[in-house]
Amino acid sequence: MKEASPRRGSVSHLSDSIMGRLSFVLLLSAATSLGSGIGDPYEKVIAEKGTPRSEIQAGAVRILNYPDVTIRLRDNVVVAINAVASAPAPTGKPSNSPAQPPPAAERIAALKRDLKEAIARVNLIVNQPVPSVPRTPEMKVAWFGNGWFHPGAATPDFNIVDVRKTQETSQYDQSEFVTSPLNPGVAFPGSEVEFNSMTKFFYLDRSLPKKKLTEPEMIEINRLYRIIGHCDSQLRYLGAQ
C-alpha cells in the first residue's frame, strides 16, 4: 500500500525506491500475462479487450473492469494492471433444488448509485482548495522546486485502510508558507497543507497542494471508503463488475 511520498528537497528514500521497483515488477508481470501493457493508450486497450463490463471515472483516473483483469488509467494511459481472482466454483445442489434467480437489476443499480455517490463525496473532501496569499519579497517561503507530488498513486484497500494513519504534514507545517514553480506569485500557509498516500488516488489537480484534512473529515473518508469497497465487491459477486 505504500508509495512514493511527496518531494522533500534532495533527500532520497530507500523504502520508496524498493517499493517502486517491486511495483514495476508486479505490473510488468501482469501486463505480460493479460495482454495489455503499462503505457498503452485507452484506445489500444479497448481495441484489444473490447468494451469493459463496467467503468469508473474519478477525475483523471479511469478504471476498466474486465472478467479477468482490472486496468487503471490516468489521463487515458495505462498505469496499473491487476488480475481478477477466479470466483470459487459453486457448490453442488440437489437435482430438485430450484434454480438460483438472476441478480436483481434494482440491486445492481442501487450499488452503482451508492458507489458513484461515495466517490463523488471523497473527491469533494480531498480536493478542497488550500487558502493562498500573494507572495511578497519579505515572506519566508519553503520552496518545493520539483512540484508537489511524484507521479502515480496507490489504490487504497477501501475495506480496511485508515487515512488518519497516513496523513503527512511535517514537511509543510515547519514553514510559515510553502510554494512551488507550479504556483507563481502565490504562497500557501504551511499549516494548511498535507500529503496522504491513501487519498492521493483522488487528487484531481496535482499542480496545487492539498488541504490538511481534519479528524472528522478523515473519519468520513474512512466511512466512504468502506462503501466503495462493499459496493465494488458486491457488484463483482453479482457479475456486474
Could you describe the 3D structure shown?
With 241 residues, the protein is α+β, with helices and mostly antiparallel strands. The protein has two domains: 12-87, Beta-lactamase Inhibitory Protein, Chain:B, domain 1 (2-Layer Sandwich), CATH 3.30.1450; 124-224, no CATH class. It is 32% helix and 18% strand. It is built from five helices and eleven strands. It has helices spanning 14-34, 42-49, 105-126, 170-173, 215-237; strands at residues 54-58, 61-65, 69-74, 77-83, 133-134, 141-143, 167-168, 177-179, 186-189, 193-196, 210-211. Helix 3 (105-126) packs antiparallel against helix 5 (215-237). The longest helix has 23 residues, at 215-237. The two termini are 23 Å apart.
Supply database-style keywords.
four-stranded antiparallel beta sheet, Beta-lactamase Inhibitory Protein, Chain:B, domain 1, 5 helices, about 240 residues, about 30% helix, alpha+beta, 2 domains
Largest sheet: 4 strands, antiparallel
Strand content: 15-25%
Please write the string of helix (H) and strand (E) elements: HHEEEEHEEEHEEEEH
Radius of gyration, taken over Cα atoms and rounded to an integer in Å: 21 Å
- Termini gap: 23 Å
Q: Number of DSSP helices?
A: 5
Number of domains: 2
β-strand number = 11
Alpha-beta content class = alpha+beta
Compute the average pLDDT: 82
Which strand order spans the largest sheet, edge to edge or round the barrel?
1-2-3-4
Helix content: 25-40%
Residue stretches low in confidence (pLDDT < 50, at least 5 long) are: 1-5, 8-33
Write the layout of secondary structure elements.
Blueprint: H1 14-34, H2 42-49, E1 54-58, E2 61-65, E3 69-74, E4 77-83, H3 105-126, E5 133-134, E6 141-143, E7 167-168, H4 170-173, E8 177-179, E9 186-189, E10 193-196, E11 210-211, H5 215-237
Parallel strand pairs: 6-8
Antiparallel strand pairs: 1-2, 2-3, 3-4, 5-9, 7-10, 8-9, 10-11
Helix pairs in contact: 3-5
